[in-house]
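Attaching the record inline, Q. Sequence:
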Amino acid sequence: MHIAFLNPQGNFDPRDSYWTEHPDFGGQLVYVKQVALAMAEAGHAVDILTRRIVDPAWPEFAATEDAYEGIANVRIIRLPAGPDQFLRKELLWPHLVTDWVPNILAFYEAEGKLPDAFPGHYADGGLAGVLIEDRTGIPFTFTGHSLGAQKMEKLGVSVDNVAKLDAHYHFARRLLAERLSMNHSGVTITSTRQERFEQYGHTAYRGAIDVQDNRRFAVVPPGVNLAVFGNDVANAQEAETRAHVLAMLARDINSDRRELPAVIASSRLDPKKNPLDLVRAFAQTPELQEKANLVLFTGAHNDPLRDDTGANPAAKQVLAQIREVVQSHNLWGKIATFALRGQPALAAAYRFLAKRCSVFALTALYEPFGLAPLEAAAAGLPVVVTQNGGPSESLRDAEIEYGVLVDPTDPADIARGLLRLLCDPATWAGFAQRGRQRVLDRYTWGRTAQGYLALIEAIVADPKARRPEKLLPIHPYFEEASAANDITLGELREIYFGVKQGKRDKG
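Structure, as predicted:
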């Protein structure tokens, strides 16, 4: 088959530039790339469709076509959408309608044949799938990754502040695009059952999809790249990464503590990832400080507790809060914060620190799936992870624990989970072995690709088999993207709050 992934935001290139360093270059890009490569390995032709950027600040994304070295049947295809410069994802909506989708159709018309199916990712990729199917009849799948209604809840959107937040995030467009995507798709793909019922069951999506309808959903978990994160592999950066980690420990950690295990966290400096309560757990627990150091891998920031230059406002706020805890509890010499660039370096650091009986921690307030702890587990680290979201399925099965689940808002519970592993070598080894085996058995990209391929083959054979009887009409804005047809605040309030108001209250 010929399969074309729709992923306009962020971007793809052979070096995986900017991954984890920018909000639009997060786990979704890892997901799409790895599923595409696994499909190609199974013998299919795969395109990753994204947006072309001609901008001196983003030089990697100017060429129309690109490829991954040694992979013959995966193409990265970048097509114009709006102005040449980089645009954050919230600003892409009108350009998808006026430029990107027409440019996709023109590209394949020039080649003489359309793909068999278009997997759409995130709301913008899903919307493109809706528009392409409407014009060609080619079916698409929808993988939301995260949904706007949950983001609105996390930001505390209310009737009073909705106008201000919508002006930045364009929630009205996003929610309408999500509703169309889940309603029109051949099937909606989630990573967990919990994601299906908790995220898609939000009242904002009522009338677009029925979470009780098994035809409309399929659970296909993402996987771990074992060639990178396997505990029994090595890469060209192994020695360099080991030297870097040792140098950073020498810089930040007292000399008499440098051989201790580490409590490792690796995530964006984002309030949602909640590194603050992990630091509080460490600060408030003397026994934990006796057993281990706290090591935060902080993206591109190499010494952010002392110099937060270049950090965005949200990251600076997180760093200021962490710095206050470090100061008030005198944690200097017990905590290290430094950069690790790219997945190979991250995996090498995990393997090195696993030999010191270290532990991985992720205390996010909510984690839709939680790929990061599975990557750490594959590299040999036992994990302590938020109980909220996907990890409650991936790391627990009935009474069998594959990781320690904790309440991310309770520093005492986080500390208890960490000490459970750090205080008993046999417990540490048992969780490390079970966690790694769980990944090998269930969470590989090959298995993910198999799940996608089975669904795509089914909807190509019968595009209407899983579809609802009644499809939502495509909003006029997504047909012409004109200011006159823009989605109003009244429509957003009706969808999200259930409050019916005037239809043209947004100029």
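Residues 226-443 form a domain with the Rossmann fold fold (CATH 3.40.50.2000). The longest strand covers residues 45-51.

More tomorrow.
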